[in-house]
Amino acid sequence: MKPIRTFSIVPVLPPELHRLRDIAVNLRWSWDGPSRNLFARLDPDLWESTHQNPVRLLGAIDQSRLEEAAADEGFRLQLERVAADFDAYMGATSTWYARTHGQTLQPCIAYFSPEFGVANCLNIFAGGLGLLAGDHLKSASDLGVPLVGISLLYQQGYFRQTLNDAGWQQEFSEENDFHNLPLTLVHDSTGGPLTVRVPHPGREVSAQVWLARVGRVQLYLLDTNIPENLPEDRGITDQLYGGDLEMRIRQEVVLGIGGCRALVALGLEPTVYHMNEGHSAFLALERARALMSAHGLTFEEAREAASAGTIFTTHTPVPAGHDAFPSELIDRYLTEYAAEFGLERANLLALGRINPTDEGELFGMTILALKMSAYTNGVSELHGKVSRDMWQALWPGVPVNEVPIGHVTNGIHLASWVSEEMASYYDRYIGPRWRSEPTGKEIWAQAGQIPPEELWRIHERHREEMVLNIRETLQAQLDQHGAAQAEIKRAGEVLDPEILTIGFARRFATYKRATLLLRDIDRLIALINNATRPIQIIFAGKAHPRDDAGKELIRQIVVASRRAELRHRVVFLEDYDIAIARRLVQGVDVWLNNPRRPMEASGTSGMKASANANLNFSTLDGWWDEAWREHSGTADPAGWAIGRGETYSNWDLQDQVEAEDIYDVLERDIIPTFYDRGADNLPRRWIARMAAAIECLCPFVSGLRMVRDYTEQFYLPALAMAEIMAADDMNGARDLAIWRARVTDGWKEVRVEAVNGDARSTLEVGSALHTQALVHLGALRPEDVTVELYAGRVNAAGELVDPTSSPMVVQSSAAAGGYIYQLSAPMARSSGIHGYTVRVLPRHDCLCSPYVPGLITWAEAPDGA
Fold first, then answer.
1. What is the pTM of this model?
2. Cys bridge to 302: 291, 392, 584, 814, which one at CB 3.0-4.6 A?
């Protein structure tokens, strides 16, 4: 039976406590310890049972407890301090961005992501991508970057996990009660919910807009579960990554197109759009459509204007992680929409294909994002290289190392993951700037002042608290499963708060190889049960509901943990979430990460361990590849490497070799270092590595560094270029589109007709190389192109290695359409066989990259060369 009318019931806060509501509805409490402590003080049990949700806590707490708190002078003083700190944070005008790049009145950067992991109670994230997006918003808030977030508000969020008696993952969902979350329904000028309409086959779908405040940053979330929609449309925002391929495209239409329309409805006019993974790539089409409508542009002109301010971050080197749709789904959901602004079906489909005319090729969201973005990046240095190799086909003729995909290595929001006790030590020895400034190494060098005995005491307390919490968690889980009392009692005795503890917690994708440590079970048992130097292991993580191979890895770990030799020192924690992750990264001694290189784009869980002075043990993949290369030669590297960065075609061989390496490093280095104690019972070599983790890694893993890098490498250049495109009623975009069409049409005539170089077969190192090239440009002009000498060493295969490019200078014109270019410069930097060639690239002041797909011409080697 449905009600004929609904209304909201809100808590009645005594006047003395009215500021609790302001603090509760801003998710800044999720990274501010005093704020969380304030709510926990009201009712610790209720705080935990509400998943640390202050809005729900205030709505569920007994009114008498609120009256009691209002009469408690100590509580009122604590509230005053928290409120004053909150006001100072929200009202600050001297943020890093304001001081460095000036004030701005409204958000000028829109950050789109399919998921955001900001707080445990706001279940709209699945894992690393969402947590990265949440940390991006928090870091932008701390820095004062004028950014706004856009995503979907999922009624059921991501699944909850439980395990059956066989150890097999079971999934269940819990509905998000939006009215009992730190969310506000946005209203329009009439007082009703603000809604936007999104195209769907034969109809439009409506989505209402909710606001989540993340410090100084606003996160807007679209919700289709409203009465005016058809039942099947109300479920579009039901589950994160739920449903079939058709549901996926429907969600991505709402995210990309609906998200852009929501910004317009909100009166926001961002200049820069940042796509966090390809799920929101349809926003590029909507931006072009809106520009065409507002300024009378053609699609190609609007594309130039839109792409100049668009940034795309790709997150996965795994092909299955890139959404792609058959043409019939694109026809069903987008062809009619695109036709409304003159984009024909063939041209629409071409935007999502490597080979535009291949009717059998799926429409790739990553390809659409790459084609419609002026700036693209991977999420670590290694991932940038892998991405250039993956997508080189989009830039035919461009050497793989020059494919225009850069990188910004991921980071974490330190204040969200560092324990309160460790944070207080950072405040004391490093200074409070670590919370709000993208501080350099000179600031973190102060970490060396933390006394070793104090650093070790903090860590031992963290490990002990983690063990006690895990025991309670396991007992509660067993009780929910109806386990026998004897089994529940045994769970209260698992793990030892004093022995070496290894943590492995992440998404259970097969390439992450969660069971690698179990490969030689007898050797592992010997390590775990060593009489004087034992170890213990904590596992946690979820497999995707349709990933049976990932679920099998979980089952194998659970079965192993039930063996008599392991049951007290190997545990698997169900329902991995932010709260469990925070406990583990703060409490374990070693964070284990062993993906198959190079399939881990970045990874951030190990960063969170490092931020708490805990040590990484990882394959050289993702961020650890960079960190290890920089710091492995230091006196006390902040962790250990598995392997030396090799890649294998035989995966079984790779697993065997790297499993052996794990056991060897544990036996030879990690375990002896941990248990090597002096008379004071301090593992001083271990503590030195912990100090190195703080000093060397914290500035690198900081999300403040990450967002600063995005701001300075991408946001500000994109903002400047987008403004150039928009100048004089979009004349910049019109001019660039005309130029591109003219150059594209004329490029078929561009050729390097002759190259004449120094006749000497031997040159001395550093001597000048004299080169002249006759280049035919046809109808193009010298100012339309750059002619470059491309030179470097020659390897055994006859290919140029580590080449450099140097612009040649036009000297004179030759026959019709021909120009003579030359260069005289020292080219040979070292002895050996060197070589060169000549290439022609398009040139325009407003090109963000000289590599326009299909527009590159190389000199052809003469016959017999």
1. 0.96
2. 291
